[in-house]
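Students often ask why we bother encoding 3D structure as a string. The short answer is that it lets us treat folding as translation between two languages. Here is a chain of 206 residues written in the first language.
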Amino acid sequence: MTKPFLAIALCASAVTLSACSQQQPAAQAQQIEGTALDGAAIGGPFTLYDKAGKQVSWDDFKGKYRIVYFGYTYCPDACPMDMSVLINGFNLFAKDHPQQAAQVQPIFITIDPARDTAARIGEFTAAFSPRLIGLTGSQAEVDVAVKAFKAVAARGADTPGGYLMDHSRMAYLMGRNGEPIAALPVDQGITKGPAAVAADLAKLVK
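And here it is in the second language, the structure alphabet:
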């Protein structure tokens, strides 16, 4: 993500979280590695489609924890790195806490539906884990999800044969009723990141 959009994302997160800074959120009280999002206005209904073209809505996941990441399959670096950290961390968590992990659904939502077809996003998510669901849709449908989660998504620089997308890099942990809990620490690299993600999931998923 370019520096201007990174700055926008950080500012947006700061504004979103400022309203709950006085309440000492439960996630923050547990000293997690990520960022507490308790009480933030993040998340909301959307309707998209999975790798088989089946319609999927936000309410379909009700009763489960959800990890939501916005990216795109043609991303040359950030998305593959973040997904690797996230899934490796989730796998560590699942190894030690299989019952809790069974209640968590990782979700990858494309911000580039023009190129990310259902088949393409299915191939991308399968490369990381059969547990990972990939979702796409029309631009308008994707925009609804992006707006609900306060994510940053915009077309970036042109490249030979294509283009980049500027986007935020947050892995949102959402509760059983779709409420925001925390942004998992997928930005800590492949060495520290998976362990940090697993540790936060162990503290936050009940």
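Translate back mentally: Residues 1-24 have pLDDT under 50 and may be disordered. Keep this in mind for the problem set.
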